[in-house]
């Protein structure tokens, strides 16, 4: 109970986080409060359970995969900086970013390539840099549940891999993935605008 | 010697005042207007405080209304989000739609925020609601200090005394009335005791209640359903009419109260083991409403306390009993005191203390016209219809989620619905694109 200070000094390394993710101070503060609200036992980090409690996420067919993206390499906790880094992928692109970027600095987290990488790793479970037919099938199965038969699903997976696969290795690499989506408006489909 | 005499005199004057100014008027349902004066002073003070705060704080740091979401949402259905017509094929980009929805839920979801108290637009001079209101002026702080003194040293003892008297009278009164044989005199007396004691209890919270549409007040043989915010809801409703309550038998003080009041009038209490048997519950409730002489049953179909900004899923069990449903919408004004019971954060005693040290409990109660199940409508649809009516009247948002989410995981059925939707899109009515070539 009691008062919550609005000072951004609450957030550790706020400046570097802001530069890295590109979020405004107000957005970062909002996300920090959200992080604290999700952290039910006030542990200071989030566990898988905390994210699974969110109803709308639990009913999302890709819910588990999305939660996985917060816990890379088998880790069991996600602290606030890592939490924000994942969310930064979905920040809408600023118009100023395009021309003025210093090419020596790392790509901003919400660039088109990074958004595609995020989507790619939802498919590529074993992180080998390729989406095999089997991995495609697994994602499809998650999205359709029990509604579609195995044969139908296999033919869909087969067709999709064939269409995207250029070098004929039977799997979709990241570059092939990006190429097949080059005409897609990634920006609109993978952006979440924080209003205040 | 003198000390104890003085103390004794103060105590007796105190009790006489309480008796004369509060207890007797409650018995007759009359108001002396003291609460109204208090409320007027309170409203004026809070308005003054709001103006002071707005003048003292630069515009940017004033928070926007809490009802606007923090992210821009695209609420279009799945078909539009996946940018396709029905029967189109799976594409690699379909995963974007689900991942965006998933991350939106992580940033802000409709349910989690409903289980914490509503944020206030402007501070109401209680420390507990102070989020980011900084020091403004000396006068404001003085008023706040005065407020603290008034609330804790004057109002709290008064309220605790009243609550104590109210509960004791309830238990004793109903036990006495219970000794009488069943007759119309007994019913009349039991109603009198219930009404008086609930009025005393509501005054112990400085409750100001506005009833609207009294012509639709629930009748005997009907079922009254309302949205649930706190245990106080029961007192709020009982001040204006008597109901038969439904619930589980509990231990401790609640158990004593339960056993006492069931002697005077037929409430429906279930043992823990009986609650699991849905048929038994439905049967007993059906029997109750079939008897036209018995009071209307009071049920809260959400099953748990929500923070009074929205109405969550109504469990269909209450709507399978049959009979006429009388919906009631209850909306509290959070400016004067937060009535929501966050049971995971506060136990009953700390909750009651918090309520008794707020300014007041102000709420509106709307009685809605009775509803019955229509032809071809199943219990779940009927429950939704009633829920919408209550949400619209009370100005609350409607959510399809189950209030039990705050304790457990969501049912797989919801996820299957999304999966079904998606499958229908990529596979169509059992035909793949390649077959039609």
From TrEMBL, chain A:
GO terms for biological process: cellular response to calcium ion; positive regulation of calcineurin-NFAT signaling cascade; positive regulation of cell population proliferation; positive regulation of protein import into nucleus; positive regulation of transcription by RNA polymerase II; protein transport. InterPro entries: Calcineurin_B_homologous, EF-hand-dom_pair, EF_Hand_1_Ca_BS, EF_hand_dom. Its main location: membrane. The keyword Acyltransferase does not apply. The keyword Amino-acid biosynthesis does not apply. GO terms for molecular function: calcium ion binding. It holds the Pfam family EF-hand_5. CDD domains: EFh. Coiled coil: none annotated. It is found in: Cell membrane; Cytoplasm; Nucleus. Keywords: Calcium, Cell membrane, Cytoplasm, Lipoprotein, Membrane, Metal-binding, Myristate, Nucleus, Phosphoprotein, Protein transport, Repeat, Transport. GO terms for cellular component: cytosol; nucleolus; nucleoplasm; plasma membrane. SUPFAM superfamilies: EF-hand. Residues 26-61, 111-146, 152-187 form the EF-hand domain. Belongs to the calcineurin regulatory subunit family. CHP subfamily. PANTHER family: EG:114D9.1 PROTEIN-RELATED. This is Calcineurin like EF-hand protein 2. It comes from Equus asinus.
Automatic annotation (TrEMBL), chain B:
It is a multi-pass membrane protein. Its main location: endoplasmic reticulum. The keyword Kinase does not apply. It is found in: Endoplasmic reticulum membrane. The chain crosses the membrane at residues 12-34, 160-180. GO terms for cellular component: endoplasmic reticulum membrane. Residues 222-333 form the Phospholipid/glycerol acyltransferase domain. One of its GO terms (molecular function) is glycerol-3-phosphate O-acyltransferase activity. The keyword NAD does not apply. Pfam families: Acyltransferase. Belongs to the 1-acyl-sn-glycerol-3-phosphate acyltransferase family. This is Glycerol-3-phosphate acyltransferase 3. It comes from Equus asinus (Donkey). The gene is GPAT3.
């Amino acid at each position: 109970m009691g008062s919550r200070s609005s000072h951004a000094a609450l957030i550790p390394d706020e400046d570097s986080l802001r530069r890295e993710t590109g979020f405004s101070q107000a957005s970062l503060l909002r996300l920090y409060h959200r992080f604290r609200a999700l952290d039910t036992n006030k542990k200071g980090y989030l566990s898988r359970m905390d994210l699974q409690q969110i109803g709308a996420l639990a009913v999302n067919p890709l819910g588990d995969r999305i939660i996985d993206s917060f816990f890379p390499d088998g880790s069991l906790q996600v602290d606030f900086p890592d939490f924000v880094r994942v969310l930064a992928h979905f920040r809408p692109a600023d118009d100023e970013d395009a021309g003025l970027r210093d090419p020596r600095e790392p790509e901003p987290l919400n660039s088109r390539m990074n958004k595609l990488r995020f989507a790619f790793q939802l498919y590529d479970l074993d992180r080998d840099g390729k989406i095999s037919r089997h991995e495609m099938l697994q994602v499809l199965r998650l999205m359709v549940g029990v509604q579609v038969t195995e044969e139908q699903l296999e033919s869909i997976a087969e067709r999709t891999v064939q269409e995207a696969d250029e070098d004929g290795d039977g799997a979709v690499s990241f570059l092939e993935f990006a190429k097949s989506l080059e005409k897609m408006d990634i920006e609109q489909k993978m952006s979440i605008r924080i209003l205040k | 010697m003198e000390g104890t005499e003085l103390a004794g005199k103060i105590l007796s004057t105190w009790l006489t005042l309480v008796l004369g100014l509060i207890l007797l008027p409650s018995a007759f349902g009359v108001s002396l207007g003291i609460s109204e004066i208090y409320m007027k002073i309170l409203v004026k003070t809070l308005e003054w405080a709001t103006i002071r705060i707005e003048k003292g704080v630069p515009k940017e740091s004033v928070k926007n209304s809490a009802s606007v979401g923090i992210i821009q949402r695209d609420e279009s259905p799945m078909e539009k989000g996946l940018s396709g017509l029905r029967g189109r094929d799976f594409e690699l980009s379909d995963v974007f739609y689900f991942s965006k929805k998933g991350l939106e839920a992580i940033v802000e979801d409709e349910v989690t925020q409903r289980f914490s108290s509503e944020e206030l637009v402007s501070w109401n001079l209680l420390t507990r609601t102070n989020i980011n209101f900084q020091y403004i002026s000396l006068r404001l702080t003085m008023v706040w200090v005065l407020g603290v003194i008034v609330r804790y040293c004057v109002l709290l003892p008064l309220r605790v005394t009243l609550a104590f008297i109210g509960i004791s009278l309830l238990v004793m009164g109903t036990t006495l009335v219970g000794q009488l044989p069943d007759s119309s005199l007994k019913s009349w007396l039991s109603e009198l005791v219930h009404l008086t004691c609930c009025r005393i209890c509501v005054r112990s919270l400085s409750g100001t209640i506005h009833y609207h549409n009294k012509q639709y007040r629930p009748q005997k043989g009907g079922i009254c359903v309302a949205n649930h915010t706190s245990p106080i809801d029961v007192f709020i409703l009982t001040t204006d009419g008597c109901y038969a309550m439904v619930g589980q038998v509990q231990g401790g003080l609640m158990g004593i109260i339960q056993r006492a009041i069931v002697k005077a009038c037929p409430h429906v209490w279930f043992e823990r083991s009986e609650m699991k048997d849905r048929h038994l519950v439905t049967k007993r409730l059906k029997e109750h409403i079939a008897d036209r002489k018995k009071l209307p049953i009071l049920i809260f179909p959400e099953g748990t306390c929500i923070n009074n900004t929205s109405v969550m899923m109504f469990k269909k069990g209450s709507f399978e009993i049959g009979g006429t449903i009388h919906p009631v919408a209850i909306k509290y004004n959070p400016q004067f005191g937060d009535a929501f019971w966050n049971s995971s954060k506060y136990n009953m005693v700390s909750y009651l203390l918090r309520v008794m040290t707020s300014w007041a409990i102000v709420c509106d109660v709307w009685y809605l016209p009775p509803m019955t199940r229509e032809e071809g409508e199943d219990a779940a649809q009927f429950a939704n219809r009633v829920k919408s009516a209550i949400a619209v009247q009370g100005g609350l948002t409607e959510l399809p989620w189950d209030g039990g989410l705050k304790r457990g995981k969501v049912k797989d059925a919801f996820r299957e619905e999304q999966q079904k939707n998606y499958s229908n899109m990529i596979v169509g009515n059992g035909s793949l694109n390649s077959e039609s070539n």
